[in-house]
Design a protein that fits this description.
This protein has 17 helices and 8 strands. By secondary structure, the protein is an alpha/beta fold. It binds flavin mononucleotide. Residues 23-28, 49-50, 77, 104, 106-107, 151, 183, 198, 223-226, 244-247 line the site of flavin mononucleotide. The record marks 104, 195, 198, 309, 312 as: Interacts with tRNA.
Length: 347
Amino acid sequence: MSLASPAPVAPSIDPAALRLSVAPMMDWTDSHCRVFHRLLAPHARLYSEMVHANAVIHGDRERLLGMDPVEHPVALQLGGSEPALLAQAARIGADWGYDEINLNCGCPSDRVQAGRFGACLMREPGLVADSVAAMVAASATAARPVPVTVKCRLGVDDDHDYDRFRAFVDTVAEAGCGIFIVHARNAWLQGLSPKENREVPPLRYDWAYRLKRERPDLQVVVNGGIADAEEATAHLAHADGAMLGRAAYHTPYLLHRLDVAWFGGQLQPRAELLRAMRPYVEAQLARGVFLKHISRHLLGLFANERGGRAFRQVLSEGAHKPGAGWALVEEAIAITESFAQPAVQDA
Ligand SMILES: Cc1cc2nc3c(=O)[nH]c(=O)nc-3n(C[C@H](O)[C@H](O)[C@H](O)COP(=O)(O)O)c2cc1C
């Protein structure tokens, strides 16, 4: 019998807690945004913006990692490719109270490529495995060990080889990662902007489904291009969860619909959900936060509803003015409510 202690394995995540999640999005999924999404979707798993491991170690942690207790469960997404630094950052994130540490293997921006992390890591499964092993070991020493997960693409550039994708996953899984969020398209590292890289390379959900079929012990969450409740629900027949990015941000009521449909409860009207933000908003204003930093995340709440454009306009124009406070939000809600008044009498 070997006396060497077995390599630590990261804790797993309860399947129900993986079903619905909101993607990590730079400049979008900050703490204010996550508090809003939490009110809409009590069962969703939320992800931070990507933070580079170096920034976690050397930067202003309160600014980079600060969160509100209502956000849980919330994951910290790390960028980086140096196992020792990622391990240190993972431990800091676990100690800070994050419920999961996620490694970004999917971001295609030039800045990220220059730093040799993000999507180009799809070509370096050994390095990702070393990083994951170090992160799992570091997280295991935290007071509360947390799962280490990976968000990846199917490949980069012209890799259209399912076996290569699965080999990447197998190598990383062996290092202790049991949960993969698959943005189900390639990243093209040359010639496409990050935005185009979320739209142009074709989606291949079937690869994520096949991975789940062939590796049933892994938890596989599908991401990419999920636009509505029907599409999101369809993924649950083939994978452990659906992660929504842009649709969740631009039409956040969708999160509420999905939460109620998948976990039960009563649909709440948009205005009521928004009014639940009031104590948070007022506490933030009292701390010197400007309304515009919170209200920008709320603009899509009434998307596709009568009064939705006016709601957006009132909030986006007014929130920049000095002294803007909760009264402005009420003003915007009132507009939508005036549209919702029943017609006096159909002619
Ligand atoms: C504004 C924006 C910022 C993003 N930032 C990140 C990021 O920091 N880390 C990451 O893994 N993906 C990032 N993504 C990609 C999303 O997490 C997601 O994989 C992608 O948008 C596809 O999902 P969707 O079609 O549901 O939006 C970002 C996407 C957007 C729109």
